[in-house]
Amino acid sequence: MSTEPEIQAAAVVFRHDEHDRQALADFTRELADSGCRIGGVVQEVFFDDRGRRTRIDSVDLATGDRVTINQASRMRPDGTGCTLDTAALAEAGAPLRRALIDRPDLIVAEKFGEQEQSGAGLADEILDVIAGGLPILVLVPEPALACWRELTGGEIAEVPCESDALRRWWHDRIAGRS
């Protein structure tokens, strides 16, 4: 009999050209509205009146607290470049660390980006949640899937970033606990 916790994680796979990362945020809001306790972080992107990205905030799903992790570069005022604040990104991992203690019904980590692919950013926190057997959805860009599979041993479910697919994953997870 194994004492290792069951893996309750899924990579929520999206393509950059689909721009449907909103499905994950909508799904978590739907679950929260139904009474589920949600932990972790999502990103909110802000644009100026010309459509140029001005900043990205990491939003704590349990508290609503925000940390600005990325801002428009002073070197590229045209909005084509942003500057990642790695200290702020480390601070943005606090909701994932807290989730290990609070044990919400679902944890969300947006996203498995360049920092995480190099083993930095939120990578340790994501892996700790998975190793703890807690339910987690991690937003993974399609080009990062090979790295994700290597990092996680290829044992994590993969779900398209679509509302119906996320609902099926959640239903299957709940049905499996019954």
**Could you spell the SSE succession in H and E letters?**
EHEEEEHHEHHEHEH
Terminal CA distance:
20 Å
Strand content: 25-35%
Give me the oligomer status. Answer: single chain
Largest sheet: 8 strands, mixed
Rg over CA atoms: 16 Å
Number of helices: 7
How would you sum up the global shape? globular
Spatial arrangement of strands, main beta sheet: 5-4-3-2-6-7-1-8
Q: How many strands in all?
A: 8
From the helix content, strand content and strand pairing, which structural class follows? alpha/beta
Identify low-pLDDT runs: none
* Average pLDDT for all residues: 86
In which range does the helix fraction lie?
Answer: 25-40%
Question: What would you say this structure looks like, in words?
Answer:
The protein has 7 helices and 8 strands; from the N terminus they run βαββββααβααβαβα. The protein is an alpha/beta fold and 178 residues long. Strands 5-4-3-2-6-7-1-8 form an 8-stranded mixed sheet, sandwiched between helices. Helix 3 runs parallel beside helix 5 (123-131). The longest helix has 15 residues, at 163-177. 29% of the residues are buried. The mean pLDDT is 86.
